[in-house]
Every structure is written in C-alpha cells, then in structure tokens.
C-alpha cells in the first residue's frame, strides 16, 4: 500500500511541477500568437496524444520533464504561395498580448514576446509554490506568532525577555512570523540584540542570550528556550505567513546553490529523481502535508534553477533575449547553439552522475 501511495504521490509531485512549468510556456506562447506544434509532458516513447487546433498534446513514458515544440505553423490554403514563388516573411508582432492566436513562428516573434514566453515557465512554478504553501497555511487553523508565550525550565532568555513580549527585530533583522525566527535561531546558545514590543512600547534589548531546549538525552528539542503564542487566521496573517514561507524556502534553495558554486558543498549533497522519490516515500509516511511541503520545495527549486544563467536553461536563454532586446541584434545562432549544446551535455552528464550516486546510496 505504501508503494502505491508513493507512486501516486510521486506522479502528483513530478507531474504537477512539470505540467505547470510547461503550461506557463504554452499559455504565454498562445497569448503572444506563437504556434505550438507539440505540448508534451515527459520524454521518450509517446503513451498518449491528441491533436487539436494544430497542436499535439502528448504524454510520454519518462515523467522527468516536458517541452513545448515551436515550429513552422501549417500554412492556410488561401495564403499558399504559387509554385516557385517565395512567400513573404510575416511581419513581427508588436503587441505583447494580442487578442487572437495568429499562428506565427517563435523566431518571428519580438524579443520581448520570446522573453515573456521563456520566463513564464519559472513564473508558473513560483505560482504553484505560493498556491501549495497557501493550502498548507490555511490547513493549520492557527499560526505561530512572534509573541512569547512561555519559557523552558532554566531558560537563559527569561533573564531578559518577558512573557507577552513580541519580538520585532533580532540583530537588526525584522521578524514577522515564526519562520523568520527559524532563520535566526539555529539551536546553539548565542547572544542577540533585540527589539521587542512590551506593554505597547518598543524596548531595545542589547544582549539577550537564547539557548536551545534540550531533551533528556541532550539532543535539541527546540531551537529556542522559549515558545511563541498562536494567532488566529486572518487575511493579513495568512498572506504574511505564506510570503514568509515562500521566502524561507527560496532562501534555503538559493543558499544551497551558492554553497555548491562556492565549493562549500560537494556533489554528494545533490540528489536526482531517485532521491526525490525516496523523499516522497518518507513524506507519505508522515502525511499529506509533508507531501505538499515537498512539492512546494521542489517547484520553487525548479523555478529558481531554470532562471540561473546556466547554458541550456531558461536563464541563459533570457540573457540572450535581453541582449537582443537591448542591442537590437540577436546573439549569433552558432554561439547560441554551441553554448546550449555544451550546457545540455553537461546537464545530462550531471544527471547521470547524480542518478548513479542515488543508486549507490539507496540500493
């Protein structure tokens, strides 16, 4: 039963993240009047397909990605050129959001339109992340605040803080929700400068020592030696907490990428599809909230990763299009082809290495 739930949850997570990403490209292309030859979820052999309005919608065997195939749209009968006559090149569209789908080639769209189409994949991943986080917040019933409710036995922070204090700043960093506090306190004993709201007045506390709450065996139970009070759901609190969760996830992902690029973390820290399925399996054991939390983390990760200026990814294509938009001259096709091909080879090689690493780790 667990294997079945893991399979279904994996399809939901992978399929949902890939679907919204490609749907972002597809919807933006349709708005810009760009013809889409095929909208595919997955790679490899085709399992199912349907053609409608000149676009083939397909599902393929390997659900590890997807693509929108932009190609020459089918010619209309009344616009066919006579034999031997060179058909005139259709004019570039100037409106970013034409009302009708004109069926133009991707190459004939303006640099701004192509930039928009390329960007919308990652944007849709961020939208999915916000929606999933919003569902998680709404399902909690109550949210953690930054108001102190009580202290652990022997808490050092109780020497300076008081029950009912609302933490406004820690070391100059504004604190809005419990997720901001999670960024500040890491489970080690440290002294911080704080500003708190106490009795309607803002009080500055230059030295507040906060330690962790420990279990009987000495392990860390909570990162702080105080607890925060709950707050009821409201439009404002839900919006703030959802935004903080998105910022928290994004910050953790960007921090991970930075550690990889600077050498602070090695290849052993990476995980591929097999590792993700293993994480989904663990999340299934804890419940649907953990599955959705993993889905939010994955879709935000995909969005950020695609925007990085790495060859073959959307981020690199956006740089090429930005150059074209600013200078009026596109980057030569030979340069784009070389850069994207080299990037694709490197990404495939990285995927192989990460997959082999996952196999040795989990099998």
Automatic annotation (TrEMBL):
Cofactor(s), by name: Zn(2+)
Signal peptide: none
Location(s) in or outside the cell: Membrane
Record region (Disordered): 72-91
Keyword Hydrolase: yes
CDD domains: S2P-M50_PDZ_RseP-like
Membrane topology: Multi-pass membrane protein
One annotated Gene Ontology cellular component of this protein: membrane
GO biological process: proteolysis
UniProt domain Peptidase M50: residue ranges: 11-349
Chief localization: membrane
Transmembrane segments: 115-138, 291-313, 337-356
Biased segments, Acidic residues type: 75-85
GO molecular function: metalloendopeptidase activity
Alphabetically ordered keywords of this record: Hydrolase, Membrane, Metalloprotease, Protease, Transmembrane, Transmembrane helix, Zinc
Family: Belongs to the peptidase M50B family.
Identification of the protein by name: Site-2 protease family protein
């Amino acid at each position: 039963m667990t294997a079945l739930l893991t399979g279904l949850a994996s399809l939901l997570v992978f399929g949902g993240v890939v679907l919204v990403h490609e749907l972002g490209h597809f919807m933006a292309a349709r708005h810009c009047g760009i013809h889409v030859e095929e909208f595919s979820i997955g790679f490899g052999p085709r399992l199912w397909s349907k053609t409608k309005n000149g676009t083939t919608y397909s599902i393929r065997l390997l659900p590890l990605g997807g693509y929108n195939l932009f190609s020459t749209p089918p010619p209309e009968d009344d616009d066919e050129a006579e034999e031997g006559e060179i058909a005139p090149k259709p004019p570039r569209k100037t409106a970013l959001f034409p009302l009708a789908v004109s069926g133009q080639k991707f190459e004939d769209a303006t640099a701004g339109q192509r930039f928009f189409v390329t960007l919308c994949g990652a944007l849709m991943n961020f939208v999915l992340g916000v929606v999933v986080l919003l569902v998680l917040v709404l399902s909690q019933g109550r949210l953690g605040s930054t108001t102190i409710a009580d202290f652990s036995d022997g808490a050092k922070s109780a020497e300076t803080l008081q029950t009912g204090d609302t933490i406004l700043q820690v070391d100059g960093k504004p604190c809005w929700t419990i997720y901001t506090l999670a960024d500040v306190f890491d489970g080690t004993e440290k002294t911080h400068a704080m500003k708190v709201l106490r009795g309607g007045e803002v009080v500055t506390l230059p030295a507040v020592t906060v330690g962790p709450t420990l279990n009987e065996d000495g392990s860390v139970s909570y990162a702080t030696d105080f607890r925060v009070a709950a707050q009821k759901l409201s439009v404002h609190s839900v919006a703030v907490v959802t935004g903080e969760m998105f910022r928290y996830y994004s910050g953790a992902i960007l921090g991970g990428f930075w550690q990889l690029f600077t050498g602070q973390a090695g290849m052993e820290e990476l995980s591929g599809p097999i590792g993700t399925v293993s994480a989904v399996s663990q999340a299934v054991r804890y419940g649907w909230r953990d599955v959705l939390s993993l889905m939010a983390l994955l879709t935000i990760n995909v969005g950020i990763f695609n925007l990085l200026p790495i060859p073959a990814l959307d981020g690199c294509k956006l740089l090429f299009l930005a150059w074209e938009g600013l200078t009026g001259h596109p980057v030569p096709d030979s340069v784009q082809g070389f850069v994207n091909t080299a990037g694709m080879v490197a990404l495939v090689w990285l995927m192989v290495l990460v997959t082999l690493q996952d196999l040795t780790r989990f099998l």
